[in-house]
Amino acid sequence: MATLVVLLLVTDERTPVTGFFDLPVTGGTATYEMLSLQPEERGHAIALLAREMFTQSASALERSFAVRNFVAQLSMPGNDKEIAADSRPLTIAAPLTADHWRDAMELPDKADLFGSLISNRSALLVCAGAMAADPSMRALLDRDRGLLKWIVKTAPAAFWIVARDFRIEKDRVIVPGGAATEPIWEALVEVKVTKPADFIRALLARDSGRLAWFYDTIATMSPERMTAAFGAPPILLQIEEARGFYSAFRAADSNWKLEEHPFLRGTQDPWIVSSQIDLLGSAVAPPAEQWFWETLFDRSEITRRSAASLRREPASMVSLAWLVQKIAGTQAKERRDRFDMIRFAQGVFKNVEGDRAIDALIALGGYRRYRAVLMTLDRMAITTPRVYARLVEAARRIDDELSGRDEKNAVVAFQASIAILERARLTQEIDTATAERLLLSLADVIDPSEPPAMKTRPFTAITHWMLNTMLDALPPLVQPDEWTTAKTAYESRLLQALAGRPSDPDAPTLKWEGLDYRVDWFAAEHARLKRIREQIESPGLDAALETNDADKISDALLTLIYTPALGDPEGSALLGGDIAQRHNFGLVGPAGMRRDFVAWAVPKEQVGDGAPWRVEGSILGLDIALARLGLRRIADNEMPVAPTINLNDQLNFARTVMTINPRSLRDQDRDVIVAAIARGRERVKAAGASLPAVRALAEEIQLPASIRQTLPWTITRTPDAVPALFGLRDLMWLGKPELSQETLDHWGVFAEVLDNRLRTAMPRPAPWEDFGGRANGGLVATQAPDLVLRLAEETARLKLPAQLVPGLLMYAAQDYWHDVESRFPDDWPAMTRQALALSPTRVEDYVAALAGGGPLRPR
C-alpha cells in the first residue's frame, strides 16, 4: 500500500473547485484502504461508496457494516488516536458544500460528516446523484435547499437514477431532445419546463421513480434512437407514441421498489430492450414489418402451410416504442423469448423478403421450442433462412411423431449430428456451403412431407446419414487409435472431427526459450479428447453399432458429444461417473410427465436439487454450458481466494474462453488493435492535466457522469491519477482501430444476454453502470473485454501468434476471476483494473504451460 499512500498525498487542497468541496475521510488513508478505494477514485469515490455501502450483496453488506462501525468508533471524542500509525489525512470530492449535507441530514455542527453520509442511504444516493449532475443542476440545489431536503426525504433513488440528465438554462429545464420535445415531456410530467423545481419534483415522484427511469433512458439515447423512440412529427402523434412507450416502463416490473432496491434491474427490462434493439438509421433494423412480428408474437408455432397463407398486413414498419410495449407487457418467460427472438432475427435474418420471409417465419416460429438448434446454426455462421426452417421442421417431426425411448434416441442422434457439424464448421474442416448442404440433407432424411407408408424410423435414418453422408464430407482418418477396429473406425473418425482439421499447412511457427514450435490446435485437442474418452466407461460407437441396439448407439453418441465439453482431462468432471448418462432431456419426468421445450433448450448445469450434478436441456452448446470446466490453473504454492465477482460474470468470462475462436484471430488484426491501444494511451498522455482535453476524451468513450463531472476536482487534486481512469477498452476506442465491427467482435467477450448469439462481441463505449444491477444476467462482464485486450498486447510484445490468445485465456481467466477484488456486484472498475494488472511474467508462465501440453508443439 506504500504506493497508494504516496499517490494520495500528491494533492493541492488550497485551490477551490466550483460546485465541490473537500470532504475529510474519517480515519484518513486507513479507512480509504479498508474501503478498497483507489487513488484515481478520489474524485468520484462518493458514487462508488453509494454502491459499496448499500448493495444487496451479503459479503459487501458485511464489509460495509464493518467500515461504518470502524468510522463510528473513530468519530467519537477521544478516539482519534485509534487510527493506525501509518494513516494520513485524506479528502475526497463531494458536491455542493458541507453545510448543505449537514442541513439535509439535520446534523449538529460537530457530527462527523463522512461517517453520517456513509450511514445514511438516502443522503448518500442524493450526494452521488448531485456529483454526476450538470453544474446547472448543482447550482439549483445550491440555492434551493428546500428542494435538496425534499429529494433526500422523498425520492433519493429516483434522483440518483436521473440526476446526470438534468440541465437548466435561464430557469428552464433542458429536456432530452431539446425544445422540440418540450411538449412531450410537459405532457408526461404535467408541469411546465419553465418551473424547474416543480418539474423535477413531479418527475421524481411519478410512478415510484419509473418516469425518472424513462427520462434517463431517453436522455442517454443517440439522436437517431430518440427519433426511433418518439417517431416523426406532428407533435400530437409524438406525444401519443411517448405515452405508449412510457406505459412499458410503468408496467415493466410488478415488484418495482426503487427506493428500497436502487441498484436492482431486470435482464429484459425496457431499458435493455430500447437500448439494444438494432437500428438502421433512425428506424428499427430489419426484419421490421409489423405483420411479421405480430404473427410471431401471437403464434407459438408456424407451419409452412400457415405461413404461405398469411396476410401480410399491416405492412407498416414497427417502431421502437411498439416493440418495447410488446415485450415489456408480457410475462417474464415470454418477455425474454420475444426480446431474444428479435435480437436473433436482427443478427441472422437481415434480408427476409419474398420466399425467404416464409422460411424465416417457420424458423422463428420454432424459436421458443427449438432455441438451441437455431442458436447453434447461427454459431456455425449459417445465413440461409431455409436451412433454419428445415431443421425446425425436422425437429418438430421428431417431437410430434415419437415418444418414450424412440423420441429420446432420435433427439440424441439428431442433435449429435448437428453438434459434430458445428465443431467441423468452427474448426474450419468444412466451409459454410458444405455445412448448409449437409444440414439440409439431414433434414431431408426426416422430411415431414414423406408419405407415412414409406417413412423410415427417424433414429435409423439419422444414424445411416451420419455414417455415410456426413462422414464422407469429413477428413479421412489420419491417426488410428484404440477405438479403431479392423472393420470400422467410426468413433475414431468422429473424435478426430471433433478435434479439428488434422493438418494445417498455414499453422504459425515461433521460437520460445530457444526451441522451435508450431501452433497445432488439432494435436492438442485430439490428445485431450482421447485422454478424456479413455476415462469414460463406454464400449464405444463401433461396438454399439454392431449390436444394432438403438439405446446403446444413443448412449455412445451422448458420450461422444460430451467428450469435448469436459475440459481438463485431469479435472474433477470425470470423478463423479459418466455425466453423459445423467443428461436430462426432460422427455420423461415424475409420473411420466413430459417437460416440454427442455430437450431443445440451451443446456444448463443443474446442481443442489438433491440429484447428482448433471446437465439439463439440449446437447447442443455443451461446451458453453460446461465452460468453467475448460479453464486451467497453473500450480501455485497458495490456494486462490474465493471469487468476489458474481457467478454470472464469472460464467461470461468462462464462456468467452469457449467461444473465442483461435482460427478467427489474425496477427495483423491483433496488431491493429494493439496499435490503437497505444494511440489511445498517447492521446491520454498528451491531454495531461488539461481539463478541456481530458474531458473531451472522457466524453468520447463515455466514462461515467460522476467521473466526467468531477474531473476539475480530480485534475486539481490528483493530476497524476488521470490516466488510470481509462481502461483498455477505452484506450482501444480512443485509438480508433481501423477494423470492422465484425472483426473486432472476434476479440470481444461472450454477450449472449444482449444479442442472443453464441459468440463474442466487442462492446462499444458506454457507461458501465447502465448495465449494472442485473447480476442474474452477468451484463457487466459483457462490457469488459480488457483481459482479452491485455493478452493481445502481451502476445504482440512477445511476438507470439494471435491464435494463442484463447489458450492463454484458459489460464488467465481462472486467475482473473479469483484476483478481482470486487467491492460490490458489477464492480466494473475493479474488473478493468485487474486486467491491466496482468503481469508480463505471468503471461510467460501461461505460454510455458501451452508448450507443456497445449497447442505449442515442438518442430
Structure description:
This protein is 53% helix and 4% strand. Strands 5-6-11 form a 3-stranded antiparallel beta sheet. The protein has a two-stranded antiparallel ribbon with strand order 1-2. It has 859 residues and is mostly helical.
Give the rounded overall mean pLDDT: 91
Task: Report the sheet with the most strands, covering strand number, pairing sense and barrel closure.
Answer: 3 strands, antiparallel
Q: Termini, distance in Å?
A: 46 Å
Give the low-pLDDT segments.
1-11
Quaternary state of this entry equals: single chain
Percent helix range: 40-55%
**Sheet/helix structural class:** mainly alpha
Portion in strands:
under 5%
Q: Enumerate the strands of the largest sheet in spatial order, edge to edge or round the barrel.
A: 5-6-11
Q: What is the count of β-strands?
A: 11
- Please give the radius of gyration in angstroms: 29 Å
Shape: globular
Q: Give the count of helical stretches.
A: 43
Give the secondary structure arrangement, pairings included.
Layout: H1 2-9, E1 20-24, H2 28-34, H3 45-54, H4 58-75, E2 91-95, H5 98-105, H6 113-119, H7 121-132, H8 135-143, H9 145-154, H10 156-162, H11 182-189, H12 196-205, H13 210-219, H14 223-230, H15 235-250, H16 270-276, E3 279-280, E4 283-284, H17 290-298, H18 304-308, H19 320-328, H20 332-348, H21 355-365, H22 371-379, H23 385-401, H24 404-426, H25 432-444, H26 458-473, H27 490-499, E5 509-512, E6 515-519, H28 521-534, H29 541-547, H30 550-562, E7 604-606, E8 614-616, H31 622-625, H32 647-659, H33 667-687, H34 691-700, H35 705-709, H36 711-717, H37 728-734, H38 741-745, E9 749-750, H39 752-755, E10 760-761, H40 786-797, H41 805-819, H42 828-836, H43 840-853, E11 856-858
